[in-house]
């Protein structure tokens, strides 16, 4: 928003972001919309001008504008979204946090115990698919009383993945896995709770059927204590329109 103000609009600019994330969560790609009103007689910015100008003013920040598109007046970055895709990166094979590659620090979660039972986690993830009341899988916040707990999970996959610069430590028998979730929208900390519960299944602390039972309880207080995944492994991958 501050970068856009440097473009000298005649009306203050407001950014409307498609999705908010917790502190410590990453975004590979997020979306926003803004209106720029220029002084009379000045032509509207084209997409390329906007891209270069905003990125020039964003140089010191850990953010870059990848694309800019002209949209209709009725478009809204948040409410026009059809779905959002999140990825959670797990690292298996570490017996101690000091074994996490330095390039991966704060970019994944290495759960205690080293390896996880991935087939059990994949079975458990199937219970999350479809439309459910996800009350057990949300943290409470000020918006809770006004938000329906019903959400539709369109995708819940667990796939092997590659690490950043993994060719430098492939001899260490480290395994990266990605949990991918897609839905029109998610509840507060829902993805981190779902990941935490699936990891508990992978550790043998829960059975796959426990995930179904947690859904049926519909009470956030029933969620296992200390099972929420940390924010560092979570990435907003994309917003689909």
- Tell me the total number of β-strands: 8
- The number of domains is 2
Question: Radius of gyration in whole Å, from Cα?
Answer: 21 Å
Strand order of the largest sheet: 2-8-4-7-6-5
Q: At CATH's second level, what is the architecture of the largest domain?
A: 2-Layer Sandwich
Strand content: 15-25%
Mean pLDDT: 93
Structure classification: alpha+beta
| N to C succession of SSEs | HEEEHEHEEEHHE
- The helicity comes to 10-25%
By CATH reckoning, the class of the largest domain would read: Alpha Beta
Which fold name corresponds to the CATH topology of the largest domain? Alpha-Beta Plaits
Structure description:
The structure is a single chain. This protein is of the alpha+beta class and 241 residues long. It folds into two domains: 1-58, no CATH class; 83-240, Alpha-Beta Plaits, CATH 3.30.70. Helix content is 19%, strand content 20%. It is built from five helices and eight strands; from the N terminus they run αβββαβαβββααβ. The chain has helices at residues 2-5, 47-57, 118-125, 190-202, 208-217, and strands at residues 16-17, 26-27, 32-33, 83-92, 130-133, 150-161, 175-183, 234-240. The strands form two sheets. Strands 2-8-4-7-6-5 form a six-stranded mixed beta sheet, with helices on one face. A two-stranded antiparallel sheet has the order 1-3. α3 (118-125) runs parallel beside α5 (208-217). The longest helix has 13 residues, at 190-202.
